[in-house]
Amino acid sequence: MESRPKKLLDQVRDAIQVQYSARNTEHAYVYWIKKFILFHKKRHPKGMGTGEDQAFLTHLALEEPISASTQNQALSADIPVP
């Protein structure tokens, strides 16, 4: 039986757990990555680039009622996609 590759967010969680120790960091980054994917109509991040990053961050700055520090947290969640 062939094993299926892990889903994207499971891969992200694994990568975060290797880099960071705080569970809250993991939850926050996964939250922002989900929002990013949903903003781009469920496209896989592997096929996106800086244009999509900028579009999402611009959306947060102009359309979402969030603070600058929260926007920085969203930017920090931009970890390499496995």
Report on the architecture of this protein.
By secondary structure, the protein is mainly alpha-helical. The chain has one domain (8-76): Tyrosine recombinase, N-terminal domain (DNA polymerase, domain 1), CATH 1.10.150. The chain contains four helices and no strands. It has helices spanning 8-19, 23-39, 50-63, 68-76. It starts with 7 loop residues before the first helix and ends in a 6-residue tail after the last helix. The model has no long low-confidence stretch (mean pLDDT 84).
Task: Please outline what is shown here.
The chain has helices at 8-19, 23-39, 50-63, 68-76. The chain has 82 residues and is mainly α. The protein has a single domain, classed as DNA polymerase, domain 1.
Shape: globular
Helix content: 55-70%
Supply the CATH class: Mainly Alpha
The CATH superfamily is: Tyrosine recombinase, N-terminal domain
Please, what is the oligomeric state? single chain
What is the C-alpha radius of gyration, as a whole number of Å?
A: 14 Å
Mean pLDDT: 84
Instruction: Give the second-level CATH assignment, the architecture.
Output: Orthogonal Bundle
Structural class from helices and strands?
mainly alpha
Question: Distance between termini?
Answer: 23 Å
Beta-strand percent range: under 5%
Question: What's the SSE pattern?
Answer: HHHH
Number of strands: 0
